[in-house]
Amino acid sequence: IVLEALFAAAGPVSAEYIADGLEGRLVRSDVSSVYRNLELLEDLGVVRHVHVGHGPGLYTLEGKTGREYLVCERCDRVDTVESTRLDAVRSQVREEFGYEAGFGHFPIVGLCPACAVDAQDGGAQHAHSHGGYVHQHPHRRGHQH
Question: What sections of 1-145 are H helices per DSSP?
Fold first, then answer.
């Protein structure tokens, strides 16, 4: 079920999303079983997880490597890009700081084009918490607390 869900998913997905059967498109499963299977598949090198934004870790097939992520900290949009498209950024980080940068496990975080324009138009800030972690970011249109 887990592998079927990962093959069917358009991008990285959460264990909860897999357990829910990709919003009813596949068979539902127990979330703890999904986590156990994901952990085993990750140990075997079949699956990898990534952290995007403030949400749970997401999982993808290792065969889909060569992909890295850009995440909007305002609207939670996730863009998957071929690793080679970030080679110039990686090169600049290497030249400037000596680090070999990778954006597969932890993405590049910023504002997507639409949110960047909205921020320039004076989008409001608000503070809230995620399990005791309090932070502030631009308020999303239609975002409820």
Answer: 2-8, 15-19, 21-24, 31-43, 87-97, 113-120
Q: 104 and 86 in contact (C-beta within 8 Å)?
A: no
Q: How far apart are CA 18 and CA 28, in angstroms?
A: 8
CB 123 within 8 A of CB 138: yes
Tracing tokens 């959460």 back to the chain, one arrives at 14
- Residue 91 pairs with which residues in a beta bridge? none
The partner residues of 12 in beta bridges, in order of sequence, read none
pLDDT digits (tens, 9 = 90+) for 51-101: 876 678 889 888 655 778 888 888 878 888 888 899 999 999 999 999 998
**Dist CA 69 CA 63 (whole Å):** 16
Helix (H) or strand (E) holding 67: strand 67-72
